[in-house]
């Protein structure tokens, strides 16, 4: 399965995200939904946030050009909120899985589906 298929089927395909991407932990986009552009500075900010969660709690991170208020941050996951939507970012060994959801999507369902995808990637050495 290609990285794009993981984004299309296992992330956005769950119905819990409207957009998403899998990016390298040191930068670079591996796959993303059309029109969802995550910059290297945004990726590096998230990667640093896993090492230093307070950095993203105090300085709201940008994801695809939108600034989010962080509601959870630790060495594995960063969750943010913007209006009635939000984002989830989960670190694997080599990547960060990022999903954005909009109004009407339950944040808990989004978190569960992205965490499962991250677990699968970790189990397969990614």
UniProtKB/TrEMBL annotation:
<dbReference type="Pfam" id="PF00235">
    <property type="entry name" value="Profilin"/>
</dbReference>
<dbReference type="InterPro" id="IPR005455">
    <property type="entry name" value="PFN_euk"/>
</dbReference>
<comment type="similarity">
    <text>Belongs to the profilin family.</text>
</comment>
<dbReference type="InterPro" id="IPR036140">
    <property type="entry name" value="PFN_sf"/>
</dbReference>
<keyword id="KW-0009">Actin-binding</keyword>
<protein>
    <recommendedName>
        <fullName>Profilin</fullName>
    </recommendedName>
</protein>
<keyword id="KW-0206">Cytoskeleton</keyword>
<dbReference type="GO" id="GO:0003785">
    <property type="term" value="F:actin monomer binding"/>
</dbReference>
<dbReference type="InterPro" id="IPR027310">
    <property type="entry name" value="Profilin_CS"/>
</dbReference>
<keyword id="KW-0963">Cytoplasm</keyword>
<dbReference type="GO" id="GO:0005856">
    <property type="term" value="C:cytoskeleton"/>
</dbReference>
<dbReference type="InterPro" id="IPR048278">
    <property type="entry name" value="PFN"/>
</dbReference>
<dbReference type="GO" id="GO:0005938">
    <property type="term" value="C:cell cortex"/>
</dbReference>
């Amino acid at each position: 399965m290609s990285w794009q298929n993981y984004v299309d089927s296992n992330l956005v395909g769950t119905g819990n995200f409207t957009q998403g991407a899998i990016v390298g932990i040191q930068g670079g986009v591996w796959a993303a939904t059309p029109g969802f552009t995550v910059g290297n500075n945004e990726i590096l900010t998230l990667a640093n946030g896993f090492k230093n969660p307070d950095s993203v709690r105090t300085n709201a991170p940008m994801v695809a050009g939108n600034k989010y208020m962080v509601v959870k941050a630790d060495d594995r996951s960063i969750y943010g909120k913007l209006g009635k939507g939000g984002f989830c970012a989960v670190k694997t060994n080599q990547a960060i899985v990022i999903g954005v959801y909009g109004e009407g999507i339950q944040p808990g369902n989004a978190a569960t589906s992205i965490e499962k995808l991250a677990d699968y990637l970790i189990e397969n050495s990614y």
